[in-house]
Amino acid sequence: MESFSTWQERQDSWLAQDLALLNDAPGFRPIVTRADLQLGRRSMPDDPNDLFRWCLPLVGASADVVFAGFVTQVLDHHKQWTREFVGGHVVEQLSPTARILYQHFDPGIPGIAKRDLCSIEITRDLAPGVKLASFRSIDRLPPAPGYARIDWWGAALCTTHEGGRESELIYLDRENQGGRLPAWFVNLTMKGYLVTQAEQVQRFFADGGPAAVRQGLQG
After folding, report:
1. Please, are residues 62 and 90 in contact by the beta-carbon 8 Å criterion?
2. The domain spanning residue 151 has which CATH number?
3. Structural domain tally of the chain?
4. Helical spans, DSSP H, in the chain
5. Which end of the chain has fewer CB atoms < 10 Å from its terminal CB, N or C?
6. Which of 93, 74, 76 minimizes the C-alpha distance to 152?
7. What secondary structure, in 3-state letters, does 152-195 show?
8. Beta strands at 47-59 and 85-95: parallel, antiparallel or unpaired
């Protein structure tokens, strides 16, 4: 969990760290190697929950559209690839490239508590058609009563392919679910969860992406 008081001085280091990891496929132990999807994992020294990296080499929309739907419009579309997502809102717009989001999730499984998440999102345009986002859990809001707080580390890198109509999407995800869900269980179940998630993202952005995303981008 990151401190809100230090986000301005930490944001560049988060982006640099994430960009290096997003581009370091050999640094992750491969667990899925398909032409349309690669998934890997690696341990990190600060948390027993593994860091996962999935890559969709060919997404059927440009980086602008994918980044809009997957990052900037995530509260509108998150349910399409994360079935547990119930809702959320923007807590604070810190700058044109930084904001804090609150989200909550209901696994719908007896005995598993609802989860909430307060995270900061930092974005950068690295080059034409290349967009980067870093996500960190942050202590801006306390957990809601009755919820277990997720401690999340995420990042996304979208790169448009030559021709402009398709792109590559790479994503980092580490989830300390808190509550009574131990790291070994989360690590065990993340493979199936992330494969399903990536496949749903792929379908969501097929054929140029949904009109709602493209219209939101134009607006």
Report:
1. no
2. 3.30.530.20
3. 1
4. 7-22, 63-67, 74-77, 183-204, 211-218
5. C
6. 74
7. EEEEEEEEECCCCCCEEEEEEEEEECCCCCCHHHHHHHHHHHHH
8. unpaired
For residue 201, give the amino acid letter: V
Half-sphere exposure of 33 (CA within 13 A, CB side): 6
Number of residues that this document lists for the chain? 219
| Residue 129 zone, left/alpha/beta (φ > 0; ψ -120 to 50; rest) | left
pLDDT digits (tens, 9 = 90+) for 3-62: 999 999 999 999 999 999 999 999 999 999 999 999 999 999 989 999 999 999 999 999
> Within the chain, which residues score under 50 in pLDDT?
none
Token representation of residue 38: 């690669």
Q: Which of 129, 212, 126, 205 shows the shortest CA–CA distance to 164?
A: 129
Query: Could you tell me the two tokens for 72?
Result: 């900037």
pTM above 0.85, yes or no: yes
